C-alpha cells in the first residue's frame, strides 16, 4: 500500500531549509537598504560641498576687499553705488551666508541663508590667508549622522 504525503521529519527538514533561506535573503535585503542610505548620504555631502565651495569661490573672486573675522569671511563685492558686504560664517553646526548693504546693494538679504542642507552638519570651518602668495585657504568638513566625508582646500 502506497502512502501519499510527507512524513513529519520531511516536513520539519523542509521548513528548516526554507526558514534558513528566507533569513539569509531578508538579511541581504536589509544590508542593501543600509548601503543605499549610506550612498545617498555620501552623494548629498559631496553635492553640498560643491555648492558651498562655489559660493565661497564666487564671492572671493568678486571681492574688492576681504576680511577674516571670527572664523568667517567678510567680502566687499560690487562697485561704488552697488556695494555689498557678503558674510560667510559658521554658527553651531551650520554655515550661513548674509548679504548686507555697504552702499546701494541691490541684492541684500533680510535674513541669513543656511548654506549646508538639512541633515548635513559643518563639523569644522576655517579660512586663512597665505601671506606669501596672497591666496586664501578654505578648509571645511561636512558630515551626516552616518557619514563624515569631505574636506575642501
Short recap of the structure:
36% of the residues lie in helices and 37% in strands. It has 153 residues and is an alpha+beta fold.
Q: Can you walk me through this structure?
A:
The chain has 153 residues and is an alpha+beta fold. The chain has one helix and eight strands. The strands form two sheets. Strands 1-2-3-4-5 form a five-stranded antiparallel sheet, covered by helices on one side. The mean pLDDT is 83.
Separation of the first and last Cα atoms: 84 Å
Q: Total helix count?
A: 1
What gross morphology would you assign?
Answer: rod-shaped
Radius of gyration: 28 Å
Structural class: alpha+beta
Give the topology:
Elements: H1 8-62, E1 63-69, E2 72-79, E3 82-91, E4 94-101, E5 113-114, E6 121-129, E7 136-143, E8 148-152
List the keywords:
single chain; about 150 residues; alpha+beta; five-stranded antiparallel sheet; three-stranded antiparallel sheet; 1 helix; rod-shaped
Amino acid at each position: 500500500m502506497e502512502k501519499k504525503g510527507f512524513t513529519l521529519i520531511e516536513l520539519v527538514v523542509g521548513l528548516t531549509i526554507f526558514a534558513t533561506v528566507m533569513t539569509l535573503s531578508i538579511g541581504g535585503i536589509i544590508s542593501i537598504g543600509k548601503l543605499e542610505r549610506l550612498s545617498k548620504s555620501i552623494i548629498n555631502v559631496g553635492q553640498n560641498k560643491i555648492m558651498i565651495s562655489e559660493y565661497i569661490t564666487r564671492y572671493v573672486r568678486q571681492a574688492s576687499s576681504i576680511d577674516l573675522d571670527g572664523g568667517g569671511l567678510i567680502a566687499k563685492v560690487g562697485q561704488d553705488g552697488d556695494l555689498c558686504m557678503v558674510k560667510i560664517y559658521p554658527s553651531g553646526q551650520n554655515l550661513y551666508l548674509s548679504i548686507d548693504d555697504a552702499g546701494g546693494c541691490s541684492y541684500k538679504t533680510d535674513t541669513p541663508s543656511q548654506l549646508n542642507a538639512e541633515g548635513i552638519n559643518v563639523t569644522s570651518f576655517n579660512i586663512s590667508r597665505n601671506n606669501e602668495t596672497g591666496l586664501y585657504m578654505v578648509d571645511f568638513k561636512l558630515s551626516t549622522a552616518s557619514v563624515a566625508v569631505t574636506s575642501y582646500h
